[in-house]
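Take a record:
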Amino acid sequence: MNEIIEAANASSDHIGYLQSVGLANTWWWPPDVMQHVLEMIHVYGHLPWWATIVTAAVGVRLLTLPLTIRAQNNTAKLNKVKPQQDKLAALAFAEQDPQKALQYQMEQSRLLKESGFKMSASLGPMLSAPIGIGMFFALRKMSAVPVAGFEDQGVLWFKCLYEPDPFLGMQLLSTAALLVGFRLGGETGMQNMSGTMKKMMYGLPIVSIFVMMNFDAATVLYISTTSLMSLTTSALLRNATVRKLLRMEPIIKLPPPDPNFKAPSMAERMKKSMADAEKLSRIAKELKESPENQKRATQTHASAVEAVYRRPPQK
């Protein structure tokens, strides 16, 4: 234990320091990998810890930028056919005949396929989640030690990185960036969300202020930088010139929802789909067990057998 305390008080300006204080023990566990990355940026870049954290956050965002571009382009493709999709979904929900409802659903699938929309592309940004989670726990553990330099290598009003931001400045900055980003639509696809989901998305950043108020400044600095990068990305990708250079679909402004129309919820649509599937299954079973169908099937089988036996022998 004394060795770890002595190591923590030593200089962190060399590779292997974090391992000497019980951190960065593996090259496969996400928090450990992120600690290795932070240490390399800190040592080889000759940067103070606050700049190391900011550089890492910017680097992660740039690394995952292609996934973000692909996801936003995918959303634009979806928006091209969304009015028709919504209309078909409403018709399918209101249709009592399960066969006709199924036809509407098949038409929806056809529209999506023709638009080029792919669900996998929208889920792409989620692949960066292990990096973000890894960085979160990496910084939390580094602050818990704390590593050498965290006590005075902060910046502005938060000189100490292992203590909470005394003025909640970064928490407020992060929340503001997220709210503006949501307003722009950005990576969240806010245009396609229901009213309830939008309210939840706007409420979460505000709640996060209280969640993060006791977090160490190092972790909140990373989160704030990531939020600002998200806002910057959203703003840039809304620019028509940028989208043209990146060969992205143009942004289509969706018409305002009809106040007299109440779209069915996801649960209601699933319940209706299950009921339709049950009806179709019952109809298919009844047709199969129908005496007329059984007689027709027997006659068809007998005709096929007779045709085989009447076939002239091959020479």
Q: What stands out?
A: Confidence is low (pLDDT under 50) at residues 307-315. Residues 2-66+121-245 form one domain. The chain has 14 helices and no strands.
